[in-house]
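This section describes the prediction task in plain terms. A model, or a person checking by hand, is given the sequence of a single protein chain and must write out its three-dimensional structure as a string of tokens. No templates, partner chains or ligands are provided. The sample shown here is typical of the held-out split.
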Amino acid sequence: MMDALDILCPMHMRTDGTGMIVHLGPTARKVFPHSLGRHLLDLFECLRPASATDMPGLRTLSKRRLRLRHRQSGETFRGVLAPLPDGGLILKLAFGIQLVEDIRSHGLTSADFEPTDLTVEMLYLLEAKTAAMDASRSLNQRLQVARISAETQAFTDTLTGLANRRALDHVLSRMGAVQRNFSLVQLDLDLFKQVNDTHGHGAGDHVLQEVARRLLSETRDEDTVARVGGDEFTLIFDGLLDQARLSDLASRLIAALEVPITFGTVTCQISASIGIARSCDYSGYRIDQMIEEADRALYASKRAGRAQFAFAHTLSGIEG
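The expected answer:
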């Protein structure tokens, strides 16, 4: 008889006529270890109906739905009692609304429930849902990585790793939106065409990559360094307006770029010309005019003999 009950009702327990637990089904042994020999009412509190406080009271609740609370863990269970000829009771138990948490906390699987128990179906559904959610999270993570990668590529110059023109436009738009002061530097490499013509585009690409590294090493983390053309670069210096500091910075940039660059067995020699525009020199926020005037200052530097810098506001014809 007990073997059959263990199969049909694996989460049950049997008491003798005094209420002492004398047998536990296989699942009940997992959920309620060390319960053999204890009194049923010492193990559980009957929450509904609340009138059962002794064995005679329990016997009157046969075939009724019970709600029980385990006195030690506080877990609640559903149950039903059936009387035995010897005066004992069989208590069949089931998990309550905290089913998922209880199953996990006790390490139960579908094998711990009778095959016809709907809990088994729920476990299958839970496993399917968990697998689907894991797959969804994995897919979302891959999509997020792909989106970030795509956005990064959209704003990055693939050869040098610097910001590109799109990124520069975004930075300038943000500066304009908050009316933030900055200096804009237009930088064009001198003698770069000779490197390409003499040593090939491989050498030219290497030079551009080294130029990017040197520009980054001479600027701050909060500054923007962008490659906007073949050998053309734009730098944004956030909040830096002091002419003396900008002059020193421009001189350092030119000096850094004049250090010869080795490519294989050849040495490449370049320099740079620079034009500088400061937002404080313009009435209103005229970013387009700043770019135009920085370009004009750049070409003035080239006409003056290259490897030089000029400020836009010092050139004739500049308003501000």
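For orientation: The chain has three domains: 2-107, 117-154, 165-314.
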